[in-house]
Amino acid sequence: MTMLLPQFELHKPTSLKEALDLARGFGDDFDYLSGGTDLLPNYKCGLNASANVISLAHIAELKAISPTEIGAGVCLRDLERSKEVPASVAYTASQIASPLIRESATLGGNLMLDTRCHFFNQSYFWRRTLGYCLKADGDVCHVIPKIMKDGKSVTNSFTCVATHSSDLAPLLVALGASCTLAGPAGTRTLKLSEFYKGDGIARFDLQRGEIFTKVSLPNTSGIRSGYKKLAPRRSIDFPVLGVAAALGLGKDGRVESLRIGLGACETIPVLYDFSGKDKQAERGNAIFTEPTKGMPEVIGKKLDDALIQTIADHVTRTAQPKLNVPMEPAYRKKMAGVFARRLLTELRS
Amino acid sequence: MPIVRTSRLSRNDHQLNKGVWTGAENRAANPFANGDSAEPEFNVIGKRMPLKDAYKKVTGEGVYADDLKFPGMLYARILKSTKAHAKIKRIDTSRAEALAGVRAVVTGKDAPIKFGVLPVSQDETAMAVDKVIFVGEPVAAVAADSEAIAEQALWLIEVEYEDLPAFLKPEESLKQVAPELALKDKVEKALPGTNVHKAVDQEFGDPTAAFKAARATPSGSFWFDGINHGFTEPHSVVAHWDADERVVLYTPQQVPHYTHRALAKVLELPMHRINVVRTMVGGGFGGKSDPFPHEIIACLLSKKTRRAVKLTMDREEVFLVNRGRHPSDIKMALAFDAQGKLIGMDSNALIDGGSAGSFGVVSTYYNGVLSNGPYYLPAFRYKGRRVYSNHPASGAMRGHGSVNPRFAMETLMDMAAVELGVDPCELRLRNFLPEMCFTPYHKFRITSNGIREGLAEVMRLSDWKNKWGKLPYGRGIGVGCAFYISGSALPIHWNKLPQSTVHLKIDMDGGITVHSLAAEIGQGSDTVLAQMVAEVLGVNMDRIHVRSQETDLAPIDLGSYSSRVTFMAGNAARDAAEKIRHDLAQAAAKLTGQPAQYFDFKDERLVCRSKPSVAVTFMEALHEAQADRGALIASGCYQSPPLGTEFKGSNAGLSPSYSFSAYICEVDVDPETGFVQPRHIWAAHDCGRALNPMAVEGQLEGSIHMGLGQALTEQMRYRGGQLLNGNFLDYKIPTPFETPEMDIVIVESIDPEGPFGAKECGEGGLAPIIPAVGNAIYDAVGVRMFEVPMTPDRVLRAIEEKKRVGK
Ligand SMILES: Cc1cc2nc3c(=O)[nH]c(=O)nc-3n(C[C@H](O)[C@H](O)[C@H](O)COP(=O)(O)OP(=O)(O)OC[C@H]3O[C@@H](n4cnc5c(N)ncnc54)[C@H](O)[C@@H]3O)c2cc1C
Ligand code: SF4
What we know:
By secondary structure, chain A is α+β, with helices and mostly antiparallel strands. Chain A contains 11 helices and 13 strands. The radius of gyration of chain A is 20 Å and the shape is globular.
């Protein structure tokens, strides 16, 4: 059996401060570890392993749970059983991986899980055979190769387009969640939708050493929310598409607010804010979608079947799944609209 | 009249296998052998019992090869080819050898002798010699003090390759190629200069006339992705070349005997200097029945170091060793007359054998000849081509060679039913082979056959008549039938030895040791042999100890493939036990003065039939029989009767008996996403007699689960020559969520030659589920699926295509 864990030193701080101090001492050569269900499989494949691993599992500050705040260290099994958080959050947590994995897996790890790609999530032997890629040990992307013309790049893609495959991220982005990061220079809070960066390698707006401490939810009373996951099997599989929505509907059936989160298509959970208030972090790359381009007017309109279809068509038109996770992009793109329509229809009733 | 009984596996029911029998009323009415009006009373036959090794497995006490430890044991890793097709220009192992902790390095030059499971396809070497022909092929191997050191050393080995164009589409391999592009030195004799491994062309009856005269001639071009067995335990071996100059190889083999032969050949040792020890097998399904390069590599490394060497693979490596079901391109047409009688078949199979011959010659025949049932087929044309390619080797997998063409045939049966306006079950009933017959040309001898009863029962249970064609759009019901061999009648190595031999030994302690080389691979082989002996001798199961692991101790048996063990080794065990029974009866006669033939063996006693007050215990009889003689020892064997006919290749598909199955499946299809969820499966299988109904149900449920994987989700996906999904996250084996409710219907046709009437039930039950799903999809949404697995995107594409072209 070769999938041996590489050698590293494991540190187990019991407070945020201790963790941050440790991190400072290791420069770049460390990783945080929560449940380890994402980090350790990657380590076993020899993917960007560090010499130091700082476990956040023993830090009580990360484990609080309330209707408006969920600590990064809350495990998914607790989240799925929680009566305090919105039902859609508990449901979505229950759709992740498998019961056993959810016992260890945490919310923070889920929102920060590494982007996925079938040229990357492979053994060392496999990647060596292919010739590696940008995201680990190499200098090309096999999904969107840099196309050169007359010595100049015509695709602006020395960027990795590995897929962000979290189930909770699109939902929390749709719910308008914020996140709090604790760093050596203090804590800061930003919109979750702005936390993600359109680069499969850099991934986040995160300073080295910063710890993701919690997710805060705005008041969601009166907001109808839900999530639909596409995966080849009903358990264990990562999403190959996730559609989440948070809908505010007036008594007259008119849309007061609508935010859709699209997961497992790009390097970020894509936000469609139909009220136009929230913008997404800089996408950084021409090949990414512009979800707002041609976005239909929905606020104040009656959410009838025709409007739902218009919204669904917009999602399908703008969704840009990549050929780097199971199931073909064309199929997933089509399903984005089908799922959006089904979800909105369910939320309406 | 075969007996029919049903048990239900319900996903929501935690008391699995409670054994809800229906149709039990049929049992009393069943006429058993020789006109007896009632079933004979058995001691252990027909009783539900857990397998003999079940407790060890569930408590973790079972010892698998990777659990073995020896003093000073080394760990080996294999350097695999990173090229699909390339010449090896140079290998330099010096840096690896210099690494601290490395004890030995071997390369292809250390064992250039060719081997392979079939004598006609000796086309593998332990490691690549001059060129590599697939990504993952062993090129060199290292033994070191730890796995980590061995792994580190691998990447210090320098290999210089010169790329050659790769053959990744089976059609490419049909072409004439320059000699340097030949993947093997020996190819099909009739097609020199190509990369074709085996060609089979057979024509019987008058298919041209049949197709001309036909009322309906459904045809289709089918594609099947390759699939892997997905057994739980990865390949793992320990080899020890010991101080006595003997080699012991611990290996989870389905067929220790063929490994024994291959080792002798490649290591150039007499067979008696090699002991192959089968360790507990964590699943095989055909994927552990070839002699393997890694088995030889471990021996070579042990020879060099004189230490025990362990070699355990990771999952990706298991996928690259493969031997799974062939990627197949099958074009088939059937001809039916106006009454719905099948009058002809024309089939053309192009199967991708990948990098090795393996069992492929057999696969090539099976893809054609196993279409000779369960329907009477009066005109037959088959063209089969198995090609070499730069993919990992295909081989034998549960339902070997029959599963893909079965899907084609059953789909076409369904198309004919629709075209002729006949209910698909009715169409099948019109065409089933009868009991006690021969197929027209290949002369398969059909003995017992309970397929009619099976189909009738699943029709009744599923409420077929009220459902087929009548369910709302999106829900459908479909049927699929199949038959399968109960052991290949001809041994792979032609010789005069019996196919199975079993030894029994009983000493004064009263324990009965069964020696056999039939491999317990989780299917219940040890249990069934013990049952044979316990039944014949009228003793409890716990008296019987099965020793089925070592070639040193066990008589030759051809192992666990082609669903042969219950039938062949079972008959051999029964034969041996009868001999002991004879001796014990003599002893009882001596003790009591009653004639020996009057004794019944039951409940650990020998009771005189004419005077039931006269009885001796088993131990009394045993000790009497041992006087002046010591341990009782007997050898029993089984050899198939002469079967078949004369033409070339006519022995393929011959078996002393055949199992039959009829399945019905109800599915939900989401017409917008293409997702298919099987709702319920009613599965009838004629296994002759259920020696242990719990084991039969387990085999059938397992077959269905495995078949559903091929039907809906499993596929080996490649990018160039590189396997994209060689792990259990990306290779989609169905989970319990995908597994529907199942009603298992056991049909007991009481085979005249099977031990206590039994036939196979380990493989035949896989094939029918795939077309049953496909046909149910048609009933649900009106599209025919020609690609397997029937993944959501494929189903959706078919639905959209149908919408586009209209009805
Ligand atoms: C077989 C399998 C199936 C899976 N299926 C799914 C699925 O269906 N859906 C899904 O969304 N995910 C899935 N996952 C991924 C993973 O299990 C979950 O996303 C899980 O929630 C990750 O949490 P964790 O605590 O284990 O993360 P870890 O592995 O501990 O961490 C993940 C990453 O986040 C960083 N990190 C973690 N916590 C913090 C923090 N507080 N501050 C800063 N950085 C942090 C780590 O450094 C690491 O880079 C699957 C994983 C496996 C192995
Ligand atoms: S998207 Fe490109 S760079 Fe990123 S992991 Fe995949 S192959 Fe590598």
